[in-house]
Amino acid sequence: MAAPGKPTKKEIKKQTPAKTSFTSPFASKWSPLPQEDMHFILKTLKDKLISMGLEKKEVKVFRPWRKKKGKKPDVAPQPVPQVSDSSKNGWTDVAARRQLAIGINEVTKALERNELRLLLVCKSVKPKHTTNHLIALSTTRGVPACQVPRLSQSVSEPLGLKSVLALGFRRCSSSDDGVFTDTVDAIKPRVPTLDMAWLQGAKPEEPVAMEEEEGGERRGQKRKLESESEEVSESPSCTLQPLQVKRIVANPAKKKKGKPKKKL
């Protein structure tokens, strides 16, 4: 008999692993983009990419089918020389490609390193919460960002890609090296500002000066206010969402992956 405190084997099997977490109290949304600005941004990007000729090319090489091991060929086939030009594969302009961040993962890494100067996200991303983290990242880095409808449809074809869910423009050391400087300068005034109420008015904390006492202990030196009559700008009120517990169950349908059968 099992001990009263320990669960039985049946109870252990019934228990499904789940992760519990709190939902975010802040509601982050992309600012709406006017239709005129949307058409201007898409046209500017498409014209720039077509004029540059930036495209990813992939040359498919014909490979003959491998015959089964059991059957032996009657006549040994003659080896067909395969000539593959590696220069044709890849991006047409590597230097221009390095100034772009394409895709959600690449854009996220570039934002974390503070390497972007402009960010455009496609509105048709599904699920929508996959790009919500870019709102806070771009706001804290001071990078203008917006959600553009039909971005993937307009940009993916000139670039030779299947889809472009996010497109970022990297910072350049000098304006002469930047190929997309004129494009970024033209699009920036059209990008609406992101509304992040809990980040407005936030200032980085200044380090507190430390002094050593006679006994070897350190104490924080308080800074005196120069003028107490300075007006303090009131930050806008931020409405918080109700805090809820989110329970994530992995594989709720309990579908087991079948083992691949070995071919004889």
Note down, in words, how this protein is organized.
This protein is α+β, with helices and mostly antiparallel strands. The protein has a domain of 115 residues: 2-Layer Sandwich (60s Ribosomal Protein L30, Chain: A), CATH 3.30.1330.30. The protein has seven helices and ten strands. The strands form four sheets. It has a four-stranded mixed β-sheet. α5 links the parallel β5 and β6. α2 packs parallel to α6. It starts with 8 loop residues before the first helix and ends in a 15-residue tail after the last strand. About 15% of the residues have low confidence. One of its GO terms (molecular function) is ribonuclease P activity. InterPro entries: Ribosomal_eL30-like_sf (IPR029064), Ribosomal_eL8/eL30/eS12/Gad45 (IPR004038), Rpp38 (IPR042848).
Given the helix and strand composition, which structural class is it? Answer: alpha+beta
CATH domain fold name of the domain at 40-54 and 93-192: 60s Ribosomal Protein L30, Chain: A
The multimeric state of the shown protein is single chain
User: Quick one: overall form?
Assistant: flat
CATH H-level name of the domain at 40-54 and 93-192... which superfamily? Answer: Ribosomal protein L30/S12
Ranges where pLDDT stays below 50 over 5 or more residues in a row are: 80-84, 202-236
User: What is the beta-strand fraction?
Assistant: 5-15%
Main sheet summary: 4 strands, mixed
Number of helices: 7
GO cellular component, one term: ribonuclease MRP complex
Biased composition (Basic residues): 253-264
Domain Ribosomal protein eL8/eL30/eS12/Gadd45: 94-150
Pfam family, one: Ribosomal_L7Ae
